[in-house]
Write a structure and sequence with these properties.
Elements lengths: L3 E4 L6 E2 L1 H14 L7 H6 L5 H8 L4 H17 L6 E2 L3 H10 L3 E9 H10 L6 E7 L7 H12 L6 E5 L2 H10 L2 E5 L15 E2 L3 H7 L5
Parallel strand pairs: 1-4, 1-6, 4-5, 6-7, 7-8
Antiparallel strand pairs: 2-3
Helix pairs in contact: 1-4, 3-4, 5-9, 7-8
């Protein structure tokens, strides 16, 4: 059994796609740029915002920072309310919590937004620590994972990262911890081969994390 389960937010705990896509649309309109297709906007969910605007949308860094500010302006007022928990995730968190597993969050979403949303959804108290993007947009997924382990004092051999994207997987690999991917989110697709351990529903997470053979 793992002692620490580190969760991603978008695409793992909650379906936040509506708020994220609407925030991107708003930012592009404010910046006077054509709004990308919904398919493109969906594909960037879960990635670091500043990098997304420079590498995926072709903004200069100053433009990207202005776009991210516009994105967060919309998100802080509307986007945080345009989200819902995935089926079974609340029960999964409750079961892990009751089994003595410490729960943490490492998300590239702004930290304060994550805490507001978790509180609104009624699951904030399950988490021992919550780390997200800082105001300078400099934190990486691996840094966030390390922060979770350092704060809880639980070593990497007893920790697992749970997420839906390549960002989560790469962060776990960099930190040298186990990884569990979910296919109900935005990144990993069902019926695709990724050579990693995957589950298709939230209820399966409990089985993997509490496996007595680990």
């Amino acid at each position: 059994m793992y002692d620490l389960a580190i969760f991603d937010m978008d695409g793992t705990i909650a379906d936040t796609s509506l708020g994220i896509i609407n925030s991107h649309r708003y930012a592009h309109k404010i910046m006077g740029r054509p709004v990308p297709s919904e398919e493109i906007l969906y594909s960037v969910i879960g990635g670091p915002l500043l990098q997304t605007y420079t590498s995926r949308f072709g903004f200069s860094e100053p433009e990207a920072r202005s776009a991210v500010a516009a994105y967060r302006d919309y998100y802080s007022n509307y986007g945080i309310h345009e989200a819902s928990l995935y089926p079974g995730i609340e029960q999964t968190l409750k079961e892990l919590f009751c089994n003595g597993v410490k729960l943490a969050m490492a998300t590239l979403k702004k930290e304060e937004f994550s805490k507001i949303m978790l509180k609104k959804m009624g699951i904030l108290n399950f988490f021992t620590v919550i780390y997200g993007m800082d105001k300078y947009d400099t934190r990486t997924k691996s840094q966030l994972i390390e922060m979770c382990m350092n704060t809880t004092g639980i070593p990497k051999d007893n920790s697992i990262m749970i997420g839906d994207s390549i960002h989560d997987l790469n962060g776990a690999k960099t930190c040298g911890i186990s990884f569990l991917g979910v296919t109900y989110g935005f990144g990993f697709l069902p019926n695709q081969e990724y050579n990693i351990q995957l589950v298709s529903s939230a209820k399966e997470i409990t089985r993997v994390v509490t496996d007595s053979n680990i």
